[in-house]
Amino acid sequence: MEDTSKYLIHADVTADGVVERSDVVGAIFGQTEGLLGDDLDLRDLRQSGKVGRIDVEIASTAG
């Protein structure tokens, strides 16, 4: 797959318990709020269409 994005963010998230894709996306948006500055606010970028697809892969190891 060819990436044409200006920015590509990779993150590993580990959780104890059952999580869904929406939980992971919500956690990323919540934890980065105010962290990246006003120019890179993920919520604003998502609403304006500047942040496209958010891929989440979930793997269960104990349940």
From TrEMBL:
This is DNA primase. It comes from Natrinema gari JCM 14663. The lineage of its organism: Archaea, Methanobacteriati, Methanobacteriota, Stenosarchaea group, Halobacteria.
